[in-house]
Specification:
Chain B: It holds the Pfam family HAMP. Chain B: One of its GO terms (cellular component) is plasma membrane. Chain B: It catalyses: ATP + protein L-histidine = ADP + protein N-phospho-L-histidine. The complex is a heterodimer of chains A (223) and B (471). Chain A has 223 residues and is α/β, with parallel strands linked by helices. Chain A has 8 helices and 12 strands. In chain A, strands 2-1-3-4-5 form a 5-stranded parallel β-sheet, sandwiched between helices. In chain A, helix 4 links the parallel strand 4 and strand 5 (97-100). In chain A, helix 2 packs parallel to helix 3 (59-68). Chain A is elongated. The mean pLDDT of chain A is 87. Chain B is built from 12 helices and 12 strands. Chain B has 471 residues and is α+β, with helices and mostly antiparallel strands. At the A-B interface, helix 4 and helix 8 of A face helix 8, helix 9 and helix 10 of B.
């Protein structure tokens, strides 16, 4: 995947570039807003990672200009401003996701990979399949090996989100934001409890475990 | 000195005085105009009545005693000093006796009333015959002419210039009066302004002292109990509040320093132990993992502090929206029910549907999460053997939205209830539980932000935490 990182903190950037490289991604780097905007509009990237406060040109204005030019490249905004209204302004400017500093690299990586998937057809698919597990979004029916699994509405949304991003790591915060639509600190391991319930429903009695816990990062569904 | 006067001129009192003096002068002049007009009309009427009376007398003399007697009477009258004008002439209009030499011809042609200018020179005056003669002064006459029964022409009148002199006297006295009042007003205004200026100066002096760092300084209050004392009292109350807030801020800073320094020290120690040469690969890994989880904890504490600060500063109204409180309470209950169950507790939701209000969705959600989390922590810390039960309630009672999280745990002693809401306060039995000690202070800050209150009530047994907001 080709990523453009627009970030003025050189130390943080070089760490990110190295870590993204280890994860198998090519990362270009711009240290100020003007250069970043020129690079973003001149080349094709899969994902843009844009810091909000940049020298020479503000991160949000870069995104607004790109969107005005009908550039739909997914953008992840990085910011030290983490209040709800800051997030809302960021997303309104055309950002696709918003991550508050300081963040864990696993969180950033998971979000970048999910964002790159945005433009793929799975976003609009009406059903998902992972191994012998199928989920039909229209009839809201879940089956594994031909056997119907009864899920609560929230469990259905949880599984739907995981299957939409099958093969990718999703973090606990991503689940809280996308499945429950909350951006607050859950204080405890609430997501883990919900995941273990979901796992017992879909994996119990089957030889292969589809729902996997990725240590230090989050969860992933794959066969 | 000039500076002092410039400053004085800028004061409101001086300006007000100037405006009032101006208004007074304008009204005085108007009044003067009315009075002088009225009095000149009065004098004119008086003079017309005098003229009529004299004409009647002479007419009577002429009828009863003949024309000689009337000529003698007119001669006598014309010798008297004063504004009187007399003329008696033969039927052709030639002067027989009188104190005016020339008359406009129409006066004698037609009987009636006339006004005209004339040379004020009195024939028969002993002075007038003596040279050198000054040019005769102009007079303005109001006369009536009649033809007597003997055929003689009689003209009687008054010099109106005299009347004007009277008006001048009124004007003069008025000007002195107005001038005096203007002068007195200016003096009174200046004195008053100096007094006002002195009061304001005392406020300024205090403000400067406070700005230079002495926050305990207060504005002196006099015994007069006037509007300046009212202002000073309000300002002093404001200063008290500011000082109190500063004190609070200092305490918070001290607490933050303490609660952040401790985990930072642990963080540093962990990193050092990972760097030790003797450390095994496994130990290093563990140390680094602890480092990360410690720094995550720090970030959470920091975020909680920021959130409280934002809520207390009054979040921007853009973050407020019309939200479904019932849905949030139900979501929180649903989110935590499995967690409570794993801990051997029961989480019950008693949420009335359709409660809506203008609020910050994330902050209300976070506040409820903190309350539920708190209830579970207390349950764990006390190792209750009876089955724990947490009830999340949302209801609307008489224009108030009440969100409650109740438990049946050991409860909080009444004496500690207000203290646990303070920042970083953790009761002894919960010291071992993870948590920043900021949970309830955030709830309190969120309640205040929504113009409501947060309180802890006795649930018999247990605690009922209530967020009470105006709908």
């Amino acid at each position: 995947m080709k990523i453009l990182l627009i970030e003025d903190d050189r130390e943080a950037a070089s760490y990110l570039i190295q870590a993204l490289d280890e994860a198998g991604h090519v990362t270009h780097h711009a240290t100020d807003g003007e250069t970043g905007y020129a690079m973003a509009s001149g080349m094709d990237y899969d994902v843009l990672v844009v810091d909000r406060m940049l020298p020479r040109r503000d991160g949000l204005s870069i995104i607004e200009s790109l969107r005005a030019e009908d550039d739909k490249t997914p953008v992840l905004i990085l910011s030290a401003l983490g209040e709800v209204d800051d997030r809302v302004t960021g997303l309104r400017a055309g950002g696709d996701d918003y991550l508050t500093k300081p963040y864990a690299f696993t969180e950033l990586l998971a979000r970048i990979e999910v964002l790159a998937r945005r433009s793929s057809p799975s976003e609009a698919a009406t059903s998902f399949q992972v191994g012998d597990l199928t989920l039909d979004r229209l009839s809201r029916k879940v089956e594994r090996g031909g056997e119907v699994i009864m899920l609560q509405p929230r469990e259905f949304r949880l599984l739907e989100y995981l299957m939409k991003n099958a093969g990718k790591v999703v973090t606990r915060t991503m689940l809280l934001e996308n499945v429950w639509d909350y951006h607050f600190d859950p204080q405890t391991n609430v997501i883990d409890v919900h995941m273990s319930r979901l796992r017992s429903k879909i994996d119990k009695g089957h030889a292969t475990s589809l729902l996997q816990t990725i240590r230090g990062a989050g969860y992933m569904i794959r066969d | 000195m000039t500076n002092r006067f410039a400053q004085l001129w800028r004061t409101t009192t001086v300006r007000l005085t100037a405006i009032f003096v101006l208004i007074f002068v304008v009204f005085s002049v108007l009044l003067l105009a009315v009075i002088s007009y009225q009095s000149s009309i009065q004098i004119q009427r008086q003079q017309a009545a005098d003229i009529d009376r004299e004409i009647r007398q002479i007419t009577k003399i002429d009828e009863r005693q003949g024309f000689r007697a009337s000529i003698i009477a007119v001669e006598r009258l014309s010798r008297q000093p004063g504004p009187g004008i007399y003329f008696i002439g033969d039927p052709t209009g030639q002067l027989i006796v009188g104190n005016v030499t020339t008359l406009p011809p129409e006066v004698l042609l037609e009987p009636g009333s006339y006004t005209f200018n004339y040379d004020r020179q009195r024939p028969g005056d002993p002075d007038s015959t003596d040279a050198p003669e000054p040019p005769p002064p102009q007079g303005n006459a109001m006369v009536r002419s009649v033809v007597l029964s003997s055929g003689l022409h009689l003209v009687v009148g008054r010099d109106v210039v005299e009347r004007r002199g009277f008006t001048a006297i009124i004007l003069q006295s008025f000007l002195y009066g107005v001038g005096g009042i203007v002068l007195l007003s200016i003096i009174a205004g200046l004195i008053n302004s100096r007094r006002v200026l002195a009061r304001i100066d005392s406020i300024n002096v205090t403000a400067n002292k406070i700005m230079s760092g002495n926050l305990s300084e207060r504005i002196p209050i006099t015994q007069r109990n006037d509007e300046f004392d009212g202002l000073a009292t309000s300002l002093n109350a404001m200063l008290d509040r500011i000082e109190q807030l500063m004190q609070g801020l200092k305490e918070v800073t001290d607490n933050v320093a303490h609660d952040l320094k401790t985990p930072l020290t642990r963080l540093r120690n962990q990193a050092e132990s990972a760097l030790r040469d003797s450390a095994h690969e496994e130990d290093r890994r563990k140390a680094l993992e602890t480092t990360i989880s410690e720094s995550d904890k720090l970030i959470r504490t920091f975020n909680a502090l920021l959130m409280i600060a934002r809520a207390e500063a009054g979040a921007p109204s853009g973050a407020f929206a019309d939200i479904d409180v019932s849905a949030i309470a139900a979501d929180v209950a649903e989110l935590y029910a499995p967690v409570a169950e794993e801990e051997g507790m029961e989480l019950v939701s008693e949420v009335a549907p359709g409660i809506r209000m203008r609020a910050n969705r994330e902050l209300i959600g976070q506040a409820l999460v903190n309350l539920v989390d708190n209830a579970m922590k207390y349950y764990r810390a006390n190792g209750e053997d009876s089955s724990g039960k947490i009830t999340v309630t949302a209801r609307e009672v008489g224009g108030r939205v009440l969100m409650e999280v109740a438990d049946n745990g050991p409860g909080i002693p009444a004496a500690d209830r207000s203290r646990v809401v303070e920042r970083f306060v953790r009761l002894e039995q919960s010291r071992t539980e993870p948590g920043s000690g900021l949970g309830l202070s955030l709830v309190a800050a969120v309640a205040r932000l929504h113009k409501g209150e947060f309180r802890l009530e006795d649930n018999n047994p247990g605690v009922r935490a209530v967020i009470d907001l105006p709908a």
